[in-house]
From TrEMBL:
A GO molecular-function descriptor: ATP binding
Keyword vocabulary terms for this entry: ATP-binding, Nucleotide-binding
Organism annotation: Niallia taxi
Domain annotation AAA+ ATPase: ranges: 102-234
Biological-process GO terms, alphabetical: DNA replication
UniProt-recorded name of the protein: AAA family ATPase
Family: Belongs to the IS21/IS1162 putative ATP-binding protein family.
InterPro entries given in the database record: AAA+_ATPase, ClpA/B, DNAC/IstB-like, IstB, IstB_ATP-bd, P-loop_NTPase
Top-level taxon in the UniProt lineage: Bacteria
Keyword Transmembrane tagged: no
Pfam families membership: IstB_IS21
Length: 252
């Protein structure tokens, strides 16, 4: 067969298989391969890498989108020089995702505005970019969703939905009180994820006061027991991270 005809046939095959990047870069890779006397295998690797790279990028973006993060603040955006109570080395260790492999939890504990949600989100974004199934949700919204599911007789399905994520981020535990029935729903989720999945939680309430949040000491203890059994607790103190730029202006 004519080389030109072969090339056109290959082009049509790639288009038929919807290998868009390989179609776009075929001419470039063939030219590069000929000029550099590349083997057929090496040329094929170079060509398929274009397709894989774009698909990986698309998958990464999709995983981040599905996670429903409140913002796209990453670790590089966190000012460790302002929030000195945070051990930067420990946060970097979290980014190795050992805690996910070992089904451990992370709890960010501290007053409002110190950067708990920023760090939880940043770890979540990094995990999602590594194609780890991740989901972010405010505690109040989570409780509402579980309550609605119970009323609609689909609680088991909703609990399974939240349990499937390798990393679940539950933000702002303790900002609003949780009645006993809702606390039972929360316990069921924590119990289903216990030693099977990793959860990152942020809270402004000291653990001793969780019985006030959940309004039932035994239930609060059962929840805490499962959360803290395999957990790293990051206690954060200091000025409001959100006000740091305002404070900087005042000090000028």
């Amino acid at each position: 067969m004519n080389p030109s005809t072969n090339y056109q046939q290959l082009l049509r095959n790639l288009q038929y298989l919807k290998l868009k990047q390989m179609t776009l870069h075929l001419n470039e890779v063939v030219d590069f391969g000929v000029q550099n006397q590349m083997s057929f295998i090496d040329m094929l690797i170079k060509l398929t890498n274009y397709e894989i790279d774009v698909r990986e990028q698309n998958m990464m973006q999709s995983m981040v989108k599905v996670a429903a993060f409140p913002h796209m603040k990453e670790i590089k955006d966190f000012d460790f020089t302002f929030q000195t109570s945070v051990n930067q080395q420990q946060i970097q260790d979290f980014l190795t995702f050992r805690f996910i492999e070992e089904n451990e939890n992370i709890v960010f504990l501290g007053p409002s505005g110190v950067g708990k949600t920023h760090l939880a989100t940043a770890i979540g974004i990094a995990a999602a970019k590594k194609r780890t199934s991740t989901y972010f949700i405010k505690c109040h919204e989570l409780i509402q969703n579980l309550r609605r599911a119970r009323l609609e007789n689909r609680l088991v399905a909703r609990l399974k939905h939240y349990t499937k994520y390798k990393l679940l981020i539950i933000d702002e535990i303790g900002y609003l009180p949780i009645d006993q029935e809702d606390a039972k729903l929360f316990f069921q989720l924590i119990d289903m994820r216990y030693e099977k999945r990793s959860t990152i939680l942020t809270t402004n309430v000291n653990f001793k006061a969780w019985d006030e949040v959940f309004q039932e000491p035994k239930l609060a203890n059962a929840i805490l027991d499962r959360i803290l059994h395999h957990a790293k607790v990051v206690t954060m103190v200091g000025n409001s991270y959100r006000l740091k730029d305002h404070l900087a202006q005042e000090n000028k």
